[in-house]
Amino acid sequence: MSAKNLQDVLDAAGNTVELLRNSQIGAYVYPVVPPEFTNWRSEQRAWRETAVLYDQTHHMDNLFMKGPDALKLISDTAINSVEKFPVNKAKQYVPTTPAGHVIGDGILFHEAEDEFVYVGRSPAANWLLYHGQTGGYDVEIEVDRRSPSRPMGKPVSRKYWRLQIQGPNAWKIIEKVNGGPVEQLKFFNMDYMNVAGQRVRTLRHGMAGAPGLELWGPYESYDTVRETILDAGAEFGMLAVGGRAYPSNTLESGWIPSPLPAIYTGEQMRGYREWLGADSYEAVNAVAGSFVSDNIEDYYLNPWELGYGSFVKFDHDFIGREALEQVDPAAQRKKVTLAWNAEDMTKIFASQFDTEGDNYKYFDLPLANYGSSNYDAVVDADGKTVGVSMFTGYSANEKRALSLATVNPDVEIGTEVTVIWGEPDGGTDKTTVEPHRQIEVRAIVSPVPYSVTARNEYRGGWRTAQEA
């Protein structure tokens, strides 16, 4: 009998860790947008030196929530306070399980009275949808799922296009496109601007460190809007960023995109697992890396471990509140950047040309993740595991391999640790894994964001966790 839901899948597998570590889904794909428009090195440098156009149209779910209970649904499921969440404001949304573990995150846009849009990966979208459908809320929810990872030539359409203008020259381009000055609102505030005769929504953002805007509008106007922005940006050195470079920007700015959704255990979560489909994100999610435990709960993380501790507000009742009230923030792991040793990186690449021995695990550029959720063991000088490295790649701006990690609270900035790169026993059966041997890579525990520009220019928000 075929599985009907996630709980069926888990029951049939028996071992959840083995199921996810051998998933055949492969790495997380950023679909539809071409991998490169110029080359990923130039595209990375452009967000630091000139300006870029990020295309976020296809890789995220949209959830359109409307009704008198829409805000209550958000409040009941978010660690964040919504006491101050007026129209034309955006906020990061972070839900937790009753045990206080993070399910995922995304961005909420308060577009009109009693109207919100969630934009982000599927785990948090699924959680909102589940409670909206089963919790007795007076709310209407429309789901616009991310574009297919491999459309295979078939037409793709979304409700919205979503673009970002970012980089040091971003505001010059924005005002040229608008045909006049555009007010630099506070971070995560929303407004409107003109593009090719159309009035489009905007969000004050700063993914590249400098002031920028996220823009969105009906998908039918995508081509006109995109061409207008790129034409205006040409004199300012603007480049379009492809699907290869785009996700690597977080290595410099510090957001961990894909922790494992902590939903695979707990009797209180059974109803949710029975609601989730057998082909849901959670059912096919691929866990990759050198950290291996027989207990799936060892992969769960709480808000403090991901840098979301300041988001936790006990001014409202929400799922997971009682568990989080028992947490000592000072005793939790903390988010850091790891700067990988250049000599050890050279060994990884040199092994590709070693005709006598096995290769080390391939380190793809600029993003080296080979699962949907990535967990590499971080060990200290005594060989003790002190954290996990969760998002790995290369920055042409820093000329370094970097990863985002969560480490024990006593691991100080400047400490040298070791990242175990590659999976044990030659690797799992994931489609992204070739036979390989592991290697110990030295790394320096560094600030997050790693980019000095980002650290100096950010004024709080969803990447630095300074503002809830």
Helix content: 10-25%
Q: Which strand-content bin applies to the residues?
A: 15-25%
Number of DSSP-assigned strands: 19
Oligomer: single chain
**Uncertain parts:** 458-468
Describe this structure in words.
- A 6-stranded mixed sheet has the order 8-9-10-7-1-11.
- The chain has 13 helices and 19 strands.
- A hairpin with a 4-residue loop joins strand 16 (385-395) and strand 17 (400-407).
- The protein is an alpha+beta fold and 468 residues long.
- Helix content is 22%, strand content 24%.
- Mean pLDDT is 95; it is low at 458-468.
Any chance you could write out the topology, listing elements then pairs?
Blueprint: H1 6-13, H2 16-21, H3 40-49, E1 51-55, E2 61-66, H4 70-77, E3 89-93, E4 106-112, E5 115-120, H5 122-134, E6 140-144, E7 160-166, H6 170-178, E8 190-195, E9 198-205, E10 212-218, H7 222-233, E11 238-240, H8 249-253, H9 270-275, H10 281-284, E12 287-288, H11 321-325, E13 334-340, H12 342-350, E14 373-374, E15 376-379, E16 385-395, E17 400-407, E18 416-421, E19 439-446, H13 452-457
Helix pairs in contact: 4-5, 6-7
